[in-house]
Amino acid sequence: MKYATGGVQGKTGDELAVEVPEAAQAIAAKSPAPAPAGAAPATKDGGAPPVTGGAAAAPPPAKKQDPANKRLRVSMWVGDPLSIIGRWKDIKTGAHEFDSTRIKAAKGVLDDIGIISGITMKDKKVVLRPASTMMFLPKAIDACHENGVQVTLGFSIADEGSVSGGAGKAFVDWLRNPVGPTLDQYAADIMEFVFEKNKANVDGLGFDVELNGLKAADADNFSAFYGKLADLLAAKKKFLHVATGIGVGGSETALLGTFRAQPFKLAKGHPNIIIRPMAYDMFNLDDDAFLKWHKDVVNYALNTVGLDPGQFQLGLKTIHNSKVAGYDPGPTWSPTKCTFDAGGVADRCKTVLKPNNVGVCTFAGWLDFNAINAALNPGMPPANTVGSPLQVPLEQALP
């Protein structure tokens, strides 16, 4: 995952990035959404033209969700399905071991796990990425549901460093001229691939698209694609979450193009879309400014964009990092900018999230979710309770 402008830019696990997570092997699986036929060429700044064929009326505002007696969503990103039910012993050889103790301990306190790597685009088709996904996904789904935890499958595609890779460039080219398939068709293709072809009984889908070629002008097509996919998911009582970012002071104007192409407002009119900004790695901020930034991000989402609190979770990093040779953090740097422990996440829950009725999503891996849940949901129902959490309530409890 890349970092918002104002900090150091890079991709987690990238040797050229400022830092390398200790969980790099698990997250390394993260790899490698749209105008109809006859669409106009890209705009002068390289962005997407508006989708032609007649503009649809803006959707009516979604009914606000009442936070009373509803828990707030506690979520976790992981690199791949095996991370839910075990761990890699040697990812190069495929050696692994199963361990169900962590998912069992999550019962009642963790609402969902988002698998970052699962599917991607190749030659305008939906494909598995990594290929080992289906080796572990069915067991991971079963383990989650047995313990009352929802699980989502991720679509991910990312460029390395500042270079626009072939897969990323192909995706951007398609997004700006979405023919064979159209936006709507590719959304349908994803649904068919996940739920029909692979029979994956996941509770939704997640997107982590971080491409250097994206621009603000691509937001219209991206939003149309996400909206169509969210509507298809809603018909199955499932949800969609999108990883994006925001700058200092709650500004979307000075961001990396990949985040400007995926603005917070894309969730409006689609109550089953959750925006999850990656709110970490702002190395140029001291701790007080970092806390203020988190408050500004929440304020921007709820009061400037007008999202329902049920459509928003703050992304906080929990994996540890090591310095890269040749990079020395500035004098205001502290480990907080890289990672929180469970206590740090719990503090943000108490001081920033709970007062605003928004949830949290940690990146990436296991920690003490009992402490986090206690801070975010004091006196609230446990996870897997019908009508909760506020962020996309369960229609019915899982098995």
Describe this structure in words.
The chain is of the alpha/beta class. Helix content is 28%, strand content 18%. The chain contains 11 helices and 13 strands. The chain has helices spanning 24-27, 82-85, 101-105, 133-146, 166-176, 183-197, 219-234, 257-260, 287-305, 342-353, 369-376; strands spanning 19-21, 74-78, 86-90, 95-98, 112-122, 125-128, 150-158, 204-210, 239-244, 273-277, 313-317, 321-323, 359-363. Strands 2, 5, 6, 7, 8, 9, 10, 11 and 13 form a 9-stranded mixed β-sheet that branches. Strands 1-12 form a two-stranded antiparallel sheet. Helix 6 (183-197) runs parallel beside helix 7 and helix 10 (342-353) runs parallel beside helix 11 (369-376). It is globular. The two termini are 32 Å apart.
Proportion of helical residues: 25-40%
Please work out how many helical segments DSSP would assign: 11
Shape: globular
| Poorly predicted residue ranges | 2-57
Alpha-carbon distance between the termini? 32 Å
Helix/sheet category: alpha/beta
N to C succession of SSEs:
EHEHEEHEEHEHHEHEHEHEEHEH
**DSSP strand tally:** 13
Main sheet overview = 9 strands, mixed
- Gyration radius (Cα, Å) is 20 Å
Average predicted local confidence, pLDDT: 85
Q: Beta fraction of the residues?
A: 15-25%
